[in-house]
Amino acid sequence: MAYDKFTILKSTAVPLAIENVDTDQLIPARFLKATERVGFGDNLFRDWRYNPDNTPKKDFVLNDPTYSGKILIGGKNFGSGSSREHAAWAIYDYGFRCVVSSFFADIFRNNCLNIGVLPVQVSAVFAEKIFHAIASDPKAELEVNLANQSITLLSTGEQEKFEISSYKKDNMINGFDDIDYLQNIKSEIKEFAENLPL
Amino acid sequence: MSNTLFDKVWDTHVIRKIEGGPDVLFIDRHLIHEVTSPVAFLGLKSRGIKVLYPERTFATADHNTPTINQHLPVADPLSANQLKALESNSNEYGISHWGLGHQKNGIVHVVGPEYGITQPGATIVCGDSHTSTHGAFGAIAFGIGTSEVEMVLASQCIMQPKPQKMRINVTGKLGFGVTPKDVALFIISQLTTSGATGYFVEYAGEVFESMTMEGRMTVCNLSIEMGARGGMIAPDETTISYVKGREFSPEGEAWEKALAYYKTLKTDADAVFDKEYTFDGSKIEPMITYGTNPGMGMGISNNIPDAEDVQGGITTYEKSLNYMGFHEGEAMLGKPVDFVFIGSCTNGRIEDFRAFASIVKGKQKAPNVTAWLVPGSHIVEAQIKQEGLLDIFNEAGFVLRQPGCSACLAMNDDKIPAGKYAVSTSNRNFEGRQGPGSRTMLASPLVAAAAAVTGKVTDPRDLIEELV
Ligand code: SF4
């Protein structure tokens, strides 16, 4: 699925200082019945965001107008659990383009990269600094520069580098995906398949 | 050069290595279900691409299916629509489709092995994180997202960097009443839910060598719960005799060729792992979880640990205990139980129902407990009947439902109500996983059975008269 190119993102961030945020929280299973990729943002963090009678829960950060932005900063081990890509779709559809955490679950990280959400893994210390900066000023901005692989806390100028493979980086900067690549090597794939043990 | 089992299978399937990027990995078998495939097919359509090898993909409906009255039309229009989409997409692209009511229908990770789709040394993917189950056969099997489902349909490949390698050895013999589920929950409690992130695990040692295939599947199934990409066990005689003669297993000359390949599938003696753990199997107790992730497990006779003794944030820990309505230092034994669920791709196989029967036989279901017994497939269902387990269940006041994922993820009507406590043999105790507000305690089929007849958390060893 095509997505918007990612180059430099300058934005405020929404803080969610909870560890082990699992994909069942990001999008509960009962919202996985769609056959098209539409409307998942409305149900992002559904059960943390809304009471059973569908009124918003006042104390949840997405319902607090103080915080907004295209970056979500979460606690350690973000995105654990189910492989549902719907979790990443919900994040994208809600309006986030980047998730920052000191540690990501594997499948979730892959899913994000495949749909144009940039997972930025920072040190625990830097994550703390971001949380701290937002706590003292909710309008504190971050700049994520994909080409330089850097994330900067603009209020203090503090910066950290993050890892991403050069292949995925090029993909995201250009809005390409893996299928584009694989379609180009189809004959090589077919030849390989002839000689497999199974 | 010395290689691990994982290296051997991975390297055999690498078509290309991209510098500064992932490997292009060929996928032997692809399993799909109704929830994570529709958008992948839409993607194929919009790109105008065909499925490259339809004969390597198998579709079954399981996540969203009812577990009673399967002969009737599915009542929920959204679920019905999703099931229909799986059927029409499979038909359009020439993929075998085992829909609701089909004799081969069942949970994707239960039917795959039953029909021999799962083979030692294969690469297997599915848009479900518990695809790690198939690693029990010495396959590299892992869960993927929908974009990757589309990739596999289009090209039979995925693009991922090679993970690091971890070996977990469990030595000795398991104690009385201790099952493969307990071994897995124990390991996760030691490593935490992120302790194996970035790794592919090989399980080794006497405990796994003497396990049945069903038990090995339970262990590998739960690999994802400690963050691992997957887990695998080297194939041996147990594996080969399970695989031989199944419908999709190789036959004749192809079988001989496959067998020669299977025999190469073991870690060389001097191969090196990036990380290695060793545990003493004889020290493991029946386990139960007390919190809202599978790493929050403990021996059933212990008390809930204090926040100070637990790794991770105290706020997260408190949030978790609050959700469960539990407190630090409390005993789990004796806690009231409202629901018992036996089933899922973790513990929905025949051996699990035998274990459950061994406890409930001659007893009665506790009046305060609602129990859902859900076989993983029609084969399991038929075995339950043939072996007389159904009679045992019925006499003890239990009914058997029809195959499916059921309360494992509560996408269908099998939802644990808000605030209620469930002892579940499934794999996730996340907030709301088994229904909004549900409170899940993960455990083995023996612990589930003990709870079902006593109505509270009970050590199954107190109910088994004879050593097994
Ligand atoms: S039983 Fe649960 S974990 Fe297994 S395939 Fe179904 S939903 Fe996934």
Query: What is the average of the pLDDT values of chain B?
Result: 96
Q: Write out the distinct hetero groups bound to the structure.
A: iron/sulfur cluster
CATH superfamily membership of the largest domain in chain B: Aconitase, domain 3
Q: Helices and strands of chain A: which structural class?
A: alpha/beta
**Global geometry of chain A:** globular
Low-confidence blocks of residues of chain A? none
Give the neighbour order of strands across the main sheet of chain B: 5-4-3-6-7
What is the percentage of strand-forming residues of chain A?
A: 15-25%
Task: Tell me the CATH architecture of chain A.
Answer: Alpha-Beta Barrel
Read across the widest sheet of chain A, the strand sequence of neighbours is: 4-3-2-1-5-6-7
* Overall CATH architecture of the largest domain in chain B: 2-Layer Sandwich
Distance between the termini of chain A: 31 Å
N-to-C CA distance of chain B: 43 Å
Provide an overview of this structure:
The complex is a heterodimer of chains A (about 200) and B (about 475). With about 200 residues, chain A is α/β, with parallel strands linked by helices. In chain A, about 30% of the residues lie in helices and about 15% in strands. In chain A, strand 5 (about 140-145) and strand 6 (about 150-155) form a beta hairpin. The relative contact order of chain A is 0.17. Chain B is an alpha/beta fold and about 475 residues long. Chain B folds into 2 domains: about 1-285, Aconitase, domain 3 (2-Layer Sandwich), CATH 3.30.499; about 305-460, Aconitase, domain 3. Chain B has 16 helices and 18 strands. In chain B, strands 5-4-3-6-7 form a 5-stranded parallel beta sheet. In chain B, strand 4, helix 3 and strand 5 form a beta-alpha-beta unit. In chain B, helix 2 packs across helix 5 (about 145-155) and helix 6 (about 180-190) runs parallel beside helix 8. The mean pLDDT of chain B is about 95. The chains are: A alpha/beta (about 200), B alpha/beta (about 475). The interface between A and B is large, with 59 and 83 residues. Iron/sulfur cluster binds next to helix 4 and helix 12 of chain B.
